[in-house]
Inverse folding.
């Protein structure tokens, strides 16, 4: 169980918050509320899965928020042009994957630092979108657009299925598939991975492309919840996802982290805001509390790994 | 022992002819040749820097030769790479294990095996099983679920061996595989090597331990200064002959040893323990003008002692410097107390490759070239220039980047840095490793000069002749402590090696 | 020669780029090449410049500090609290602020140097923490103003009517850091750490102490920037410095500092900063849209790093096994992509200017929204363009891409330099913009305000669409009408620190207290002008405060967000009203999830901005007149110095389809 100490710690914190809510508030543990909370965090969750892969390789992607905004608009524009919603979603995912591939290519083959590459694309994509749309929303969407024409419940169940499938896919993929293990190997010791014959450039490229794909897909999934699409969505998404992955125990320098940890990180950060509202704490303190949780989580991480590090550096 | 001769009919496992390779202008390999037969243990010997590592790296495809020919199982290899050589059945166990610290032992062992097998999934249970079997088959016992980053160096080596054995290699390269193994583990490894040989595996065995080689190897190829000097049957040679072939000169004549009358005790250590670095009960003292050699196997505690004394892995125990009790908590404190440490890993720790020669030289003594914290670049230049001249550092100017220099000149820059702090005590850790022959003797000359100027020198070297030839007294490390201290007269290769292997010797 | 001056090839290239840039703008942009403009660029670069200075050595060590922008917000707010509520003398406030910066930097230092945590994650945490503290203390709403003139002089004054007062501070800090980084023993060790931290430790350099020093200094410098920023804007607010960390890092990287550590100089960083500042300034003067700057910066950043990578392939720190960079194809690809993007942008931009600038003696009216992306302002723009066409004047329509008071100031400065004929501003922050508006008036440029007013003497006319009190009263009364028996209501606002919204909230509270005591305000939640966040917040409100029967959403995107949440919850007993645009609320008004929205005709308001601006510029509004004829709007009443557009429109399902904005 030592291997999962971090996940257990986050889970314990979540339980603590939930216990506090159960003891002092009403209405949090209703199906309605929980499904609302779940839906609200689906985009963060899906993008965090990709961010986990990127951080496992020791890289970072701060452009996901901007990619998310572009893909939201793309979904709407495609749907308004009369394409079926599923096709619109496909197009959005492809656009996301292309933008991710652009970052990935520069990081992998040009060996450019990922933080600079994605900082540049974050700014350029966001402002490019503002320029192109002039802030206008996409409206006049076909009736079948919202929730694919499904009912609220059916949509929620569908999202649940999608989320669970993706989590299982990535958890299993990272643990039981060679491709997943190559990501760990690349992040843990890139030189050794190359000696093994792993094409680490391709690994790096792939994790960015996959994250782009997931970002596009989640943007499309989120877009269909409404009947119009704003042009400024996804602001701050990069920080939420990076924080979730870090809180979930992945080391930012690569090689170590789990999907379970990331999911727990998303849950913890996702319930903090609503929990504060339920507890009657003013919304104005939310950022501060979030910052504290991030700092506490990474500090605990290091302190618990301290001995291990000592050994590995000897 | 199998009777093989180089004229037999079966295709050679490896045929390498006149391979050359240079790094940054330094010839690491001038003319490397090797003929390896299937089913033989072929030892590759030579001093440090003779080109063994370079030759093996070319065979595994880690680097490309500048010129020369390489055939593996009769196949002409023009562009080798790790995948290619692995596909041809080459497996290697490097001196520095290439492990993934965040991954488990089982995965470290099985990942390369699976790459051969193909498939896209990972079966953890069979991985674990396989890893366990492989580890047991070499007589070790490591939990396959442990993270590799938590293993000791010896355990990491075991993982590497298990990996190679699991790969069912037809050509197995072993680079100092026993350096970190206990005697029992070594015995088991030999049994294993012999078994592999009888199965037809061609084994290239690199080691500094001549006894080991003479008892294990079928044939021996000797490298010297990047050149293949000889290839002989193990039965036809003895130790003395091998040493002569490797060194190409007699031991006594090459070292410019001049005895200095020792002064007061400069450093005295009593009952030093550092469990974290694996050191226990270390006592010794060194006088001014004395060269104190530290011999022992890699990992026996020599470097760890140096790092402890220099405050890199500090302990709270006090040591005596020039008669005063002090504790050293960091390198900065050590420097302030007149201790210099030329580290083992020159490229990582010795010099900062991206900085200029001048910056490197003054880095540990910046306050000496500064006024009230501000650098005086004229003074810095003149200090650097003085060392460049006196140490004969071959570089166009002192603002040349250190990374552009040859290994020997980099090492001189590193030495200059420590001379610049005007130390009373100088610890030299493998000062001539990976240094060309010319620079090597220059460095030896310098070490003697240090002693003549009254410095107390602690000299760590894996090259036994160097320790024997340079030192006034020799401390022998075994298993984390100094087991014996021998005078120059007492110390023979035989005696030192026995001690280093943990045999009791009546002095 | 160059070697003697310690100027690298990269810096020479930057200087050349800067010179070329300046030459280009001198030709292309009116009034670019003036001393006034030069010093304005510097003034607006001071706060950012301080951060650039602090971040340069940190990046050289291979670290990063994302918390500096948030530290500005936190220090500014505490500075304001100490002055305003603590009644401390200014000098004491400044000293305590610097101390707070030391503590903020100290926390980073403790975690990074002490616990050896990765700087990226640590400062991501403190980024959130420091901003959160600022918001928590002020509840986002409070902005501290009313500083003595002597203090404001620090941020707004000039020496000899030309040199901004804060310039010497920047120079002093720059000089000190130059000595620290490039002349001192410590600076040398910083480079050594950046190249190889382990190697530096072996050379006896106290690595952790040095790192700690840099992060602590960074905190102090950020707090100094905060004090200057407060003096510059004349107010302290929790959102000051938002996004500054990324701007500063961008400048540092453009200036040639490698994020892998070891490489870069302060000179390079400052050149990078001025390169970007001049770019921004020049593009404003050319009336190119603000968004283009971001796109250009992104592309430039990639191009610079790509070229740098190709130049120094040999020294990249990947150990054994690195495949050599395949130079030519990669470079060709990068070059083609970068060139292609830049060309497209410039071609596109040429035809896409914010208004056409033709020759001859046409009037140029510059109109600024609070944020360009906001649907409300977008609909106003349509009216503005209509008026411009009708009157035959040139319209410059530009503003911050997201709410940003300081960028508004910067734009006004640029417009003064450019010499437009009238400036019409939707004021984001009264205290901060009034100084520069007074300056515009002093230059003889008519100044009008719209949407929200500036200080009285800072403008000629306020185009009053409706007063905050009027809006608040209308909303509250409508709420009371919908809840005849009283009950709880919740407010979903825009950003926590948005001044407009906070004013409305205050007036709503007053109206409730005086006229509708049976209404109770349950909670206020921010939406950050993000529809999705408004949606999520409303969902939580509905569950956490089940008694809430009414949502008042007072930001345009928040109304559809709240409406969708209410609709999806099936809570037909909950009403939604607010301030928003008919276009994005139409479906919700029809399906009954929104009862009423209030707004004035935004298109008419936009029309009025240009029309009134033109009239004022041509001096066609008589002093003391009671009314003015505004094109198709007919005669509008003038009350004092306010031109009244009319009462707020009450929009419901009956009239929504007749409104096209």
């Amino acid at each position: 169980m030592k291997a999962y100490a971090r996940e257990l710690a986050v889970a314990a914190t979540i339980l603590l918050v939930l216990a506090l809510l159960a003891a002092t508030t009403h209405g949090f543990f209703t199906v309605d509320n929980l499904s609302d909370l779940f839906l609200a965090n689906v985009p963060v969750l899906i993008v965090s899965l990709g961010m986990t892969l990127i951080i496992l390789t020791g890289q970072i992607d701060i452009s996901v928020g901007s990619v998310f905004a572009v893909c939201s608009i793309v979904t709407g524009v495609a749907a308004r042009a009369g394409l079926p919603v599923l096709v619109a979603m496909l197009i959005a995912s492809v656009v996301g994957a292309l933008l991710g591939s652009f970052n990935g290519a520069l990081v992998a083959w040009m060996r450019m630092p990922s933080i600079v590459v994605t900082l540049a694309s974050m700014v350029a994509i966001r402002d490019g979108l503002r320029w192109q749309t002039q802030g206008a929303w996409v409206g006049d969407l076909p009736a079948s657009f919202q929730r694919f024409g499904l009912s609220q419940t059916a949509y929620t169940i569908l999202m649940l299925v999608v989320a669970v499938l993706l989590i299982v896919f990535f958890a299993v993929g990272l643990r039981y598939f060679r491709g997943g293990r190559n990501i760990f190997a690349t992040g843990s010791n890139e030189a050794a991975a190359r000696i093994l014959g792993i094409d680490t450039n391709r690994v790096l490229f792939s994790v960015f492309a996959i994250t782009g794909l997931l970002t596009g897909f989640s943007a499309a999934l989120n877009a269909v919840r409404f009947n119009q699409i704003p042009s400024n969505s996804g602001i701050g998404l990069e920080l939420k996802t990076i924080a979730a992955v870090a809180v979930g125990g992945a080391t930012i320098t690569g090689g170590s982290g789990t999907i379970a940890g990331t999911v727990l990180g998303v849950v913890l950060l996702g319930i903090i805001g609503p929990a504060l509202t339920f507890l009657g704490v003013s919304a104005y303190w939310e950022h501060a509390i979030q910052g504290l949780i991030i700092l506490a989580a990474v500090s605990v991480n290091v302190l618990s790994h301290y001995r291990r590090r000592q050994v590995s550096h000897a | 022992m199998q009777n093989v001769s180089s004229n037999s009919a079966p295709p050679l496992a490896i045929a390498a002819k006149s391979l050359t390779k240079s790094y940054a202008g330094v010839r690491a390999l001038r003319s490397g040749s090797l003929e390896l037969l299937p089913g033989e243990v072929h030892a590759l010997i030579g001093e440090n820097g003779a080109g063994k590592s370079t030759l093996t790296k070319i065979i595994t495809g880690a680097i490309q030769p500048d010129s020369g020919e390489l055939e593996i199982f009769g196949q002409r290899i023009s562009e080798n790479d790790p995948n290619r050589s692995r596909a041809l059945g080459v497996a290697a166990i490097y001196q520095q294990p290439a492990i993934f610290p965040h991954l488990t032992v089982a995965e470290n062992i099985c990942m390369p095996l699976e790459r051969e097998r193909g498939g896209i999934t990972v079966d953890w249970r069979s991985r674990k099983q396989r890893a366990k079997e492989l580890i047991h088959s070499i007589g070790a016992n490591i939990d396959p679920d442990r993270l590799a980053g938590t293993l000791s160096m010896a355990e990491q080596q075991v993982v590497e061996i298990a990996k190679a054995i699991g790969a069912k290699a037809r050509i197995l390269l072993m680079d100092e595989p026993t350096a970190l193994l206990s005697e029992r583990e070594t015995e088991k490894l030999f049994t294993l090597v012999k078994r592999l040989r009888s199965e037809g595996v061609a084994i290239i065995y690199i080691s500094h331990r001549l006894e080991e080689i003479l008892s294990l190897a079928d044939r021996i190829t000797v490298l010297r200064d990047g050149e293949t000097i000889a290839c002989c049957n193990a039965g036809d040679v003895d130790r003395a002959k091998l040493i002569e072939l490797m060194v190409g000169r007699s031991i006594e004549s090459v070292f410019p040893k001049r005895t200095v009358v020792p002064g007061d005790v400069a450093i005295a250590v009593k009952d030093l323990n550092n469990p974290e670095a694996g050191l226990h009960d270390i006592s010794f003292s060194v006088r001014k003008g004395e060269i104190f050699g530290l011999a022992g196997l890699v990992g026996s505690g020599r470097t760890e002692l140096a790092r402890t004394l220099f405050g890199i892995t500090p302990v709270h125990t006090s040591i005596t410097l020039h008669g005063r009790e002090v504790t050293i908590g960091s390198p900065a404190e050590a420097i302030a107390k007149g201790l210099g440490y030329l580290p083992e890993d020159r490229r990582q720790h010795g010099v900062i490759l991206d900085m200029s020669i001048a910056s490197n030289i003054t880095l540990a003594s910046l306050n000496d070239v500064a006024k009230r914290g501000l650098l005086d670049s004229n003074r810095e230049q003149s200090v650097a220039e003085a060392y460049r001249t006196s140490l004969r550092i071959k570089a166009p100017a002192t603002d040349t980047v250190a990374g552009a220099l040859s290994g020997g000149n980099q090492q001189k820059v590193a030495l200059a840095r420590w001379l610049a702090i005007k130390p009373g005590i100088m610890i030299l850790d493998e000062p001539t490793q990976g240094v060309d022959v010319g620079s090597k003797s220059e460095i030896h000359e310098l070490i003697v000069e240090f002693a003549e100027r009254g410095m107390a020198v602690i000299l760590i070297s894996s090259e036994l002749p160097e320790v024997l030839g340079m030192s006034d007294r020799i401390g022998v490390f075994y298993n984390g402590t100094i087991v014996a201290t021998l005078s120059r007269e007492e110390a023979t290769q035989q005696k030192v090696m026995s001690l280093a292997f943990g045999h009791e010797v009546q002095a | 020669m160059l070697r003697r001056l310690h100027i690298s090839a990269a810096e020479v290239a930057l200087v050349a780029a800067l010179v070329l840039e300046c030459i280009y703008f001198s030709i292309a942009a009116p009034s670019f090449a003036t001393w006034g403009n030069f010093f304005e660029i510097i003034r607006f670069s001071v706060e950012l410049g301080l951060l650039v200075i602090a971040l340069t050595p940190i990046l050289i060590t291979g670290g990063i500090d994302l918390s500096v922008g948030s530290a500005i917000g936190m220090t500014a707010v505490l500075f304001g609290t100490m002055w305003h509520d603590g009644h401390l003398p200014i000098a004491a406030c400044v000293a305590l602020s610097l101390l707070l910066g030391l503590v903020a930097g100290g926390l980073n230092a403790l975690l990074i140097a002490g616990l050896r945590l990765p700087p990226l994650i640590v400062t991501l945490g403190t980024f959130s923490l420091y901003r959160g503290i600022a918001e928590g203390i002020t509840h986002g709403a409070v902005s501290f103003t009313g500083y003595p003139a002597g203090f404001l002089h620090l941020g707004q004054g000039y020496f000899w009517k030309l040199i901004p007062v804060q310039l010497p501070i920047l120079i002093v800090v720059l000089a000190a850091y130059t000595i620290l980084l490039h002349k001192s023993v410590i600076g040398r060790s910083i480079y050594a750490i950046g190249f190889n931290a382990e190697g530096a430790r072996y050379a006896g350099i106290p690595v952790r102490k040095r790192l700690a020093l840099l992060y602590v200094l960074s905190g102090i410098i950020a707090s100094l920037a905060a004090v200057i920023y407060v003096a510059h804007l004349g107010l302290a607010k929790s959102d000051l410095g938002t996004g500054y960390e990324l701007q500063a890092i961008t400048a540092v990287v453009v200036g040639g500092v490698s994020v892998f550590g070891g490489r870069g100089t302060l000179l390079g960083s400052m050149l990078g900063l001025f390169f970007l500042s001049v770019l921004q300034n020049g593009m404003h003067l050319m009336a190119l849209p603000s968004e283009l700057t971001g796109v250009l910066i992104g592309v430039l950043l990639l191009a610079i790093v790509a070229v740098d990578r190709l130049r120094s392939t040999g020294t990249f720190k990947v150990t054994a096994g690195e495949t050599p960079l395949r130079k030519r194809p990669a470079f060709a690809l990068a070059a083609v992509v970068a060139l292609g993007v830049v060309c497209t942008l410039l071609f596109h931009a040429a035809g896409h200017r914010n208004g056409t600038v033709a020759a001859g003696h046409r009037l140029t009216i510059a109109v600024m929204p609070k944020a360009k992306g906001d649907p409300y302002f977008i609909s106003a723009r349509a009216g503005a363009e209509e008026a411009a066409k009708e009157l035959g004047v040139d319209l410059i329509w530009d503003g911050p891409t997201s709410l940003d008071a300081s960028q508004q100031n910067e734009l006004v400065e640029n417009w003064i330099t450019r010499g437009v004929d009238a400036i019409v501003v939707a004021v984001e922050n009264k205290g901060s913009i009034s100084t520069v508006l007074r300056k515009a008036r002093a230059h003889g440029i008519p100044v009008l305000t719209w949407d929200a007013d500036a200080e009285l003497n800072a403008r000629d006319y306020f185009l009053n669409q409706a007063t905050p009190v009027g809006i608040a009263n209308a909303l509250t009364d409508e709420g009371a009408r919908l809840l005849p028996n009283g009950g709880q209501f919740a407010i979903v606002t825009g950003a926590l620190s948005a001044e407009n919204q906070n004013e409305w909230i205050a007036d709503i509270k007053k109206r409730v207290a005086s006229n509708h005591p049976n209404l109770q305000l349950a909670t206020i939640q921010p939406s950050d002008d993000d529809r999705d966040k408004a949606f999520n917040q409303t969902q939580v409100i509905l569950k956490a405060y089940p008694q809430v029967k009414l949502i008042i959403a007072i930001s345009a995107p928040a109304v559809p967000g709240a409406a969708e949440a209410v609709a999806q919850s099936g809570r037909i007993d909950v009403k939604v009203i607010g301030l928003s645009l008919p276009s994005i609320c139409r479906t919700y008004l029809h399906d009954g999830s929104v009862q009423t929205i209030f707004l004035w005709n935004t298109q008419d308001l936009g029309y009025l901005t240009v029309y009134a601006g033109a009239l004022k510029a041509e001096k066609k509004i008589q002093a003391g007149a009671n009314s003015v004829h505004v094109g198709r709007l007919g005669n509008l009443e003038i009350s004092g110095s306010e031109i009244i557009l009319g009462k707020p429109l009450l929009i419901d399902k009956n009239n929504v389809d007749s409104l096209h904005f």
About this structure: Residues 306-314 of chain A have pLDDT under 50 and may be disordered.
